[in-house]
């Protein structure tokens, strides 16, 4: 067996024992689950309309307008007129004017909201919805805003520093490691693994010979030629009547027994390990912080957000926006029917309608300002 084959055997056996060591550690990790301190942030509740009945009332407006428009074909205040304060009002055709104006207001708002999202894919004549057609630009602008103002390396570093997260988790990690290494089952398994690894390696004559040869080469390289140490080694080999290779291999054969006797030192090392981790806690924290900062500096937040938004399905994006603002979109849609109906009054009688609508709108605005002011004063 040549040197390369021996190295391959050592490498494969080392991998096998490394796998066993990992399984031993994994079993201990499963046996001692780490405490999870992450808290799930509550989902912000969807803001619903304060006056739900008003939305339900507005939903009926398009249906009422359709019925009114249908009725106008059979009866529409035919020949009906009236005089108020010497001002003559002709009601003939009013139903059709109001119903058409209201339906136009409803349909234009419905079309505007629909065109935000549909069609999802470009059509030859219908084009494409605003959000799908501008998805790349929206993704870029949103990612830019997120990376500059919300999540960037400097903000992440600041939050890590302010929260003292590394120090807290280092302390928790030390306690966690202590719980694992204090487990007698873990220590017994680790000792058996070490002894088994050394015993299997030394038991193979080819491997033992390769290790001995490597040790001799390292000793020769470390000792100067014609030095006292090298002369002493040669004299020792001559007096024993054996080659240095045989002497080293013989010493290696006794290695497993020596390791078994010295395993109490491993216990001593494991006992001191948590204390050593605490003693060098600041060094560990500085090292972890430095590595974490290097990782953060290499993190391109803008590209990460932009790529994820670009890959986001248009229908999912539409559903996301609608789920967050469905009531408000419905208000806009159905309110168009009411505003369109008011527009019909202006078409019918411009001057009188403008005066009445101005009074109504002004009253609503003043009432809103008054209520808002009162609520603001009552807030603590």
UniProtKB/TrEMBL annotation:
Keyword Transmembrane: yes
Keywords: Membrane, Transmembrane, Transmembrane helix
Record InterPro entries: DUF445
Record localization: Endomembrane system
Pfam families xref list: DUF445
Transmembrane segments: 53-75, 95-117, 331-348, 354-374
GO CC, any one term: endomembrane system
Family statement drawn from the similarity comment of this UniProt entry: Belongs to the UPF0754 family.
Protein name: Uncharacterized membrane protein YheB, UPF0754 family
Organism: Gracilimonas mengyeensis
């Amino acid at each position: 067996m040549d040197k390369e084959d021996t190295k391959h055997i050592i490498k494969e056996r080392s991998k096998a024992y490394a796998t066993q060591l990992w399984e031993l550690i994994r079993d201990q990790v499963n046996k001692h689950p780490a405490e999870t301190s992450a808290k799930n942030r509550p989902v912000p509740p969807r803001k619903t309309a304060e006056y739900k009945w008003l939305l339900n009332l507005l939903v009926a407006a398009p249906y009422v307008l359709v019925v009114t428009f249908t009725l106008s074909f059979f009866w529409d205040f035919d020949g009906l007129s009236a005089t108020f304060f010497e001002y003559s009002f002709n009601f003939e055709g009013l139903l059709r004017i109001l119903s058409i104006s209201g339906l136009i207001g409803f349909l234009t708002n419905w079309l505007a909201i629909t065109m935000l999202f549909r069609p999802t894919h470009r059509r030859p004549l219908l084009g494409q919805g605003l959000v799908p057609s501008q998805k790349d630009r929206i993704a870029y602008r949103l990612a830019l805003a997120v990376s500059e103002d919300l999540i960037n390396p400097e903000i992440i570093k600041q939050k890590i520093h302010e929260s003292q997260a590394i120090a807290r988790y280092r302390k928790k990690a030390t306690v966690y490691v202590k719980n694992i290494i204090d487990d007698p089952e873990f220590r017994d398994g680790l000792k058996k693994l070490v002894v088994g690894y050394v015993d299997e390696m030394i038991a193979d004559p080819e491997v033992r010979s390769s290790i001995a040869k490597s040790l001799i080469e390292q000793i020769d390289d470390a000792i100067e030629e014609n030095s006292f140490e090298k002369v002493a080694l040669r004299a020792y080999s001559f007096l024993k009547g054996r080659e240095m290779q045989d002497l080293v291999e013989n010493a290696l054969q006794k290695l497993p027994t020596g390791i078994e006797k010295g395993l109490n030192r491993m216990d001593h090392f494991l006992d001191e390990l948590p204390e050593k981790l605490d003693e060098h806690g600041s060094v560990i924290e500085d090292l972890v912080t430095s590595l974490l900062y290097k990782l953060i500096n290499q993190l391109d937040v803008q590209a990460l957000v932009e790529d994820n938004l670009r890959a986001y399905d248009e229908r999912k994006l539409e559903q996301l926006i609608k789920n967050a603002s469905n009531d408000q979109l419905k208000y806009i849609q159905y309110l168009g029917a009411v505003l369109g109906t008011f527009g019909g009054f202006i078409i019918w009688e411009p001057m009188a309608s403008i005066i009445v609508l101005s009074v109504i709108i002004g009253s609503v605005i003043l009432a809103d300002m008054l209520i808002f002011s009162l609520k603001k004063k009552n807030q603590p």
